[in-house]
Fold:
Amino acid sequence: MDKKKWFFGVSVLCLVLFPIGWEGARAQDKPTIVVGSKGFTEQVILGNMVALLMESNGFKVDRKIGLGGTVICHEAIVRGDINVYVEYTGTGLTAILKKPVVKDPEEVYQIVKTEYEERFKLSWLKPWGFNNTYCIVMRKDDAERLKVRKVSDLKPLAKDLIFGGTIEFLARPDGVPGLTKHYELKFKDQKGMDPGLVYKAIAEKQVDVISGFATDGRIPAFNLIVLEDDLKFFPPYFAAPVVRMDLLSKAPQVGEILNQLSGKIGDVAMATLNYNVDGKKMDAATVAKEFLKGQGLIK
Structure:
């Protein structure tokens, strides 16, 4: 073979293969992202969004979606069993940091951001836009019959009403213990249950009042009504990814990728996504994928 032709052929082959090898090496250098989430619908959707964004940017992902409640997810990320999940600012403030309720959303965010970094080596990224605050919910017909519009209206009625909520809500300081003290409520009974059973319980009249989430699409679908938090008990609960700082030091682009959703999901949009799963029975991963496609963040 002509030496010039041989050299040219080898050179072209190297030019073709080298970039492939380089990209392969870069992909291998990326850490595997272990994505967690809590067990209720909204969290499953958000966890899938995190996973899909990471995968679309070349990261390998280990999904631990529906891991458990707040404490389980927090302990998992502190131990390093997961390295990212979406949390709520008010939950971080009261349930994890055990701080008193603060009403200003920016102040709450700065408190959790600073203390999580100092105490847990965890970083709060930018909030994604919606405020999934807790709310107190009744059947609309009962609320109209009893003339209940505000949580404080329950005070003289609570002795005849059964309250239902998640086991976590019945125990956490920004849940039943704080709520009943703040509003001076004494319910006839309190029933703790799995998150997926709470709305079923009120629809079937097993309970009269429940804790809900402001972005839950089942509230209008089940003909329920949100009572006004007139004494301002609940803090803001803006959703944002919480990420291990050691992951961000190895792969700072993780923060940049997830911050693309900053301010992109409003309250109505999140309620619609939740209803697509709970009401229309769509797959949560599919709902997450279609939303990200609509935002132009994945193909």
About this structure: The chain has two domains: 31-131+237-294, 134-227. Residues 3-25 have pLDDT under 50 and may be disordered.
